[in-house]
Amino acid sequence: MESILAKLGLEASNKGATTGGSSGWLTTGGEMLSTVSPIDGELIARIQQATDDDYEAVVATAREAFEKWRCMPAPQRGEVVRQIGLRLREHKQALGALITLEAGKITAEGEGEVQEMIDIADFAVGLSRQLYGLTMHSERPQHRMYEQWHPLGAVGVITAFNFPAAVWSWNALIAAVCGDVVIWKPSSKTALTAIAIHNIIAPVLDQHGLRGVFNLVIGSGTQVGEAMINDPRLPLISATGSTRMGRHVGTTVAKRLGRSLLELGGNNAIIVCEDADLDLALRATVFGAVGTAGQRCTSTRRIIVHAAIRERFVQALTRAYAQVRVGDPRRNETLMGPLIDASAVDQMMTALDQARSQGAEVLFGGERMTPVPGGFYAAPTLVAAENHFPVVQTETFAPILYILEYENFEDALRMHNDVPQGLSSAIFTKSLPYSEAFLAATGSDCGIANVNIGTSGAEIGGAFGGEKETGGGRESGSDAWRAYMRRQTNTINWGASLPLAQGITFDL
Ligand code: NAD
Asked: Which of the residues are catalytic?
């Protein structure tokens, strides 16, 4: 552990606010936060959280930085992001190991998260030359119309514990090439990763003399989070987390007529049709439900399986679940690590009690585990349930998979969409009509809909996000960058007269 911390510039006690670069760390007098590893409950390091004064200092520096950063040509901003990508490549292993230590992800997933940061950096570099606007044909002679995209300002980024690094990069690296500056409030459960990232990128910021472009403020949701969402100096708040948090953030930011980009909870299902390749469906289901210990927003939470193959599929799932090795995520053979903390395990057990009382049957797992003393482990769990059970309608952030059965395809689709959330979805079938029906306007109502691929593990090239209680936001690829910019429509009259639109005459 010491060598990982040393490689990332972390100490036993760390400052919790920075305006970026090696000398940007603020002398904070805030309360100490202890970060423990979910692997064994041991202390990793401590963080001195930001005070209100630190927050004010960060916002002031960020706003000053915006004045200059927005004037730097976008491809030059892209060059800064390219160099950040190189630093991330050099530190992929160490940062991945810290994510494993702090969030409990298995090594492959910890490093995979850093790879996602590298990928989005590359994407953002290309994007820095592609912040395109449209041109329009004016209805008036000798007039030209077009739109352009300008930077927005200081963007507040609030992130969840389960992607302690990647979600910042989706937001920050895209926002940066767009000409925005970023103020990040990470989850207090995984804030060391945020400090490590700022240490990794510090030499790039030093080299370019950039202070205030990438900022960090560590503190609770009720202190730092509230300050951000109520702050009219932050025109956009991008918030990733639970629907409960997002509902509060969305209404608070709306009250000041700010913009919010919400990435909230999911309740993702896979429909397994009678003609599905069961081997593919099985592997996608196990990865989707058990990966990251069921703590991905895109984790598979419901399987909607055709009655004719239900028994066979459940038996195969049970055999596969029996082979999932739960334990220390640093060990090569481990497939499922711990949950984030003791309360996450308690919430899983409460959900299972509720499921039983609502008529569900636990088919596999359901118990706490102690493969490593002091850690927060539970068995991956299969539950036979019905879609309308309140517990099935709720996102429990744990490795619980509800098995639901259908007889005709319309029922499967109806069940699929009949939850409050709308993030990710999948169908396994060899039938063109089924797969097209799933992707049609009357099909899946989610932001992500896949065929013969599971619900989790999205690529960065597409826009990521979901509908309904998932919040409607889109991040990462495609044209999600537009959320970080303001659109301006320009009309230029290069003639000698002043014709009015819609043919209106107004002669003096
Ligand atoms: P959470 O809602 O408990 O916390 C998320 C963030 O919100 C944290 O940084 C927290 O400090 C902050 N916060 C809490 N109260 C706040 C307030 N009043 N004002 C401002 N900020 C506040 O979520 P979590 O437990 O860290 O993460 C798990 C949840 O995140 C799950 O519901 C999961 O589905 C969701 N998630 C969604 C996506 C997505 O892209 N849709 C991605 C990852 C996680």
From this structure: 263, 297
